[in-house]
Design goal:
Blueprint lengths: L15 E3 L2 E3 L5 E5 L6 H14 L3 E3 L17 H14 L3 E5 L5 H7 L2 E4 L7 H8 L5 E4 L6 H13 L5 E5 L17 H8 L4 E3 L1 H5 L5 H10 L4 E5 L17 H17 L1
Parallel strand pairs: 3-4, 3-10, 4-5, 5-6, 6-7, 7-8, 8-9, 9-10
Antiparallel strand pairs: 1-2
The structure holds phosphoenolpyruvate and manganese (II) ion (MN).
């Protein structure tokens, strides 16, 4: 039963308002920023750069769900406060990943859009808890989840009373190892046929390769995505997390130019 997420129940595209920024229903959103917040100046500088290039939201991880427990785990509360500082200087709403149902109050008070990561897509208690508030939620697709399972995870949030869900395809686990994951472009039309919720694409985690991010971004836009989530770092070689898939602000600016042309004719 996916009655609340289904297009039958709600034929028009939903527009989710993220602190005044509309996402969906023809409003293309570009959320850009570092994988992890590393310092106040880093995230503020990147915020100003991506804003100048046309980004509509700033992304940045503060609590990181790393595959290895020995990898950088994020600046945690300090990271959230630096993100807030970057929102202040840039005017961009902020999106950051939540890890636990115990953090819902903290995130509702701090960020404009709460990200649920691929590893937590089926954390039912977390889905229920963000369903009890009204802060918008960015729900990433699980590493090996079907579209049906992903929509049921969204339904779990809507069923609790929070209608503000944005979906994000970030690549799935397949046999292919030329890329970090396999971007499922077909998930965009599949979800848009089944559901009224906005669908974003994260080409950074989908490929793991910065040079491939522009092609995948344009493909996602051409296939009807409602926006993109893109990792941007001022010095990818020194990034504490996901440097190999991060665009420089200059590369991001060039991509934004191509995207604008494509979106005009879409
Ligand atoms: C991220 O956005 O930095 C992230 C960890 O993504 P995912 O949950 O898709 O792996
Ligand atoms: Mn990342």
């Amino acid at each position: 039963n996916t009655e609340k997420t289904s297009r039958t129940a709600h034929p028009d595209d939903s527009v989710v308002l993220v602190s005044g920024v509309p996402v969906g229903g023809g409003h293309f959103a570009v959320m850009a920023g570092p994988c992890s917040v590393e310092s106040r100046t880093q995230v503020c500088d990147i915020a100003l750069a991506v804003k100048a290039a046309g980004a509509t939201l700033l992304r940045g991880g503060a609590f990181k769900a790393r595959t290895s427990p020995y990898a950088f785990q994020g600046l945690e509360l300090e990271g959230l406060s630096y993100l807030q500082a970057a929102r202040e200087v840039s005017g961009l709403p902020i999106v950051s990943e939540i890890l636990s149902p115990l953090q819902v109050e903290l995130f509702a008070a701090t960020v404009d859009l709460i990200q649920i990561g691929a590893r937590n897509m089926q954390n039912v208690e977390l889905l229920r808890e963000v369903g009890r508030i009204k802060t918008p939620v960015l729900l990433k697709r699980g590493l090996a989840s079907t579209v049906a399972e992903w929509l049921l995870a969204a339904e779990t949030i809507l069923a609790q009373g929070n209608p503000n869900v944005i979906l994000c395809e970030r690549g799935i686990r397949t046999f292919e190892n030329a890329t970090r994951n396999t971007l499922d472009i077909s998930a965009i039309p599949a979800v848009k046929r089944l559901s009224h919720l906005p669908v974003l694409v994260d080409p950074s985690h989908a490929s793991g390769l910065a040079w491939m991010v522009p092609s995948l971004s344009l493909a996602a836009a051409a296939a009807g995505a409602d926006g993109l989530l893109i990792e941007v770092h001022d010095n990818p070689d020194l990034a504490l997390c996901d440097g190999a898939q991060s665009l420089t602000p200059e590369e991001f600016g060039a991509l934004m130019g191509k995207l604008r042309t494509l979106l005009e004719i879409r």
